[in-house]
Amino acid sequence: MDHASPPRAVVSWSGGKDSALALHRALTGRTHRVDALLTTVTDEYERISMHGVRVSLLEAQARAIGLPLQVARIPRACTNERYETVARGALAAYAADGGEAVIFGDLFLEDVRAYRETLLAPLPLAPSFPLWGEDTRELARRFVALGFRAVLACVDPKQIDLAFAGREYDERLLAELPASADPCGERGEFHTFVYDGPIFRAPVAIARGEVVERDEFVFCDLLPSRSPQQGGPRPRI
Length: 237
Description:
Radius of gyration: 17 Å
Distance between the termini: 45 Å
Structural class: alpha/beta
Mean pLDDT: 90
Number of helices: 6
Strand content: 25-35%
Shape: globular
Helix content: 25-40%
Order of helices and strands: EHEEHEHEHEHEHEEE
């Protein structure tokens, strides 16, 4: 009996743990044939928008995973209208090339999901939310148990202590997060950069740089490295 091929998809890629888990789910479940990772980058900074991670590390991450990287570039202080024009342009190009779906790592925020669906509505691309509605404590534990490794690249000091910036996302951190914080940071408490795990062919070598405050967020500047990570509880990269 012939079986239909799974739909072709691009992953809306932040470089963080939720998009990594969504990709892992798509690959292990064979729900989609993943063509590429699509990331929004702020032009003047050459960094992943919101997360503040350098493009060089994003590129190294994509190589380590073994998927092509597509970058949608937006200006600093980008308006919603400009963002939507850029994002739809990139997605329209993918659809024109035969793409059928977009995979998102969103967890439970209804307004964010509705925004994604509205963004895709004019395009022949189906949104997919493989992690939607799952318990975020369980997802956080599963991420660590699967062997993923990540570091907090950005924190919102209004929600969690700025000392969490640059820390390893592990069981210890999860135990020390305040009860008010979502363990997956779904309300913007923090953003992560994933550097190793079951979807990686090899780990991405990183070093922690300076911690800076910008636009009311605190960022740990992550740097490419040739040597194992310093300062983490498990320095194996």
